Amino acid sequence: MVTPNNVKPVEILIIERNPKNLELLIEAFKYSELSYNISFAGNAEQALKMIFQTNEFKKSGKPDLIISDIITYHNEVRKKILDIIIKREATKCIPTVILSSLNEIETLEIQNCPNLLLYKPKTLEENINVVNSIEKFWLSLNKK
């Protein structure tokens, strides 16, 4: 995506363990009208280091938007990660989108609720539709 001179690209962090799912999502973002930079983490530990800019990620920028498949983690790990991202002062303002193919979406505790919850797409076309939903969500948060 070409970035207009006056528009700062959206810094997107994708947390995804499955390389094929990550590849489809990145491909779908090529159809987005958003100006963006994508970083990705293959596990929760790496994601938290990126979000809090620790260790080797001290010089990286904080994400403007987090897209995650974190719901597939074990309940206790999921709860801890969501608590960290959604409840901490430094990160609670970062919009969080959860993608999952599991039927467990309804089991997320309300206090750990992300900003947007979508079923994980399987095809490129479904990924493009999800990216369009994320784009509308992002634009609704950033209306002037």
Question: What are its keywords?
Answer:
phosphoprotein, 17% strand, TCS_response_regulator, alpha/beta, Rossmann fold, CheY-like_superfamily, 144 residues, Response regulatory domain-containing protein, 5 strands
What would your notes on this structure say?
The model has no long low-confidence stretch (mean pLDDT 79). The protein has a five-stranded parallel sheet with strand order 2-1-3-4-5. The chain is globular. The chain has one domain: Response regulator (Rossmann fold, 3-Layer(aba) Sandwich). It is an alpha/beta fold. 26% of the residues are buried. It is 35% helix and 17% strand. α1 packs across α4. Keywords: Phosphoprotein. The modification 4-aspartylphosphate is found at residue 69. It comes from Methanobacterium bryantii. This is Response regulatory domain-containing protein. Residues 11-135 form the Response regulatory domain.
Summarize it:
Residues 11-135 form the Response regulatory domain. With 144 residues, the chain is of the alpha/beta class. It has helices at 19-29, 44-51, 75-87, 124-141; strands at residues 10-15, 36-41, 65-68, 96-100, 116-119.
**The top level CATH class name:** Alpha Beta
- The dominant shape is globular
Physical arrangement of strands within the biggest beta sheet: 2-1-3-4-5
What CATH architecture would you give? 3-Layer(aba) Sandwich
User: How many individual β-strands?
Assistant: 5
Low-confidence stretches at least 5 residues in length (pLDDT < 50)?
none
Instruction: Kindly report the CATH topology.
Output: Rossmann fold
Compute the CA-based radius of gyration: 15 Å
Could you give a short account of the major beta sheet?
Answer: 5 strands, parallel
Domain count, please report it.
1
What is the number of helices?
A: 4
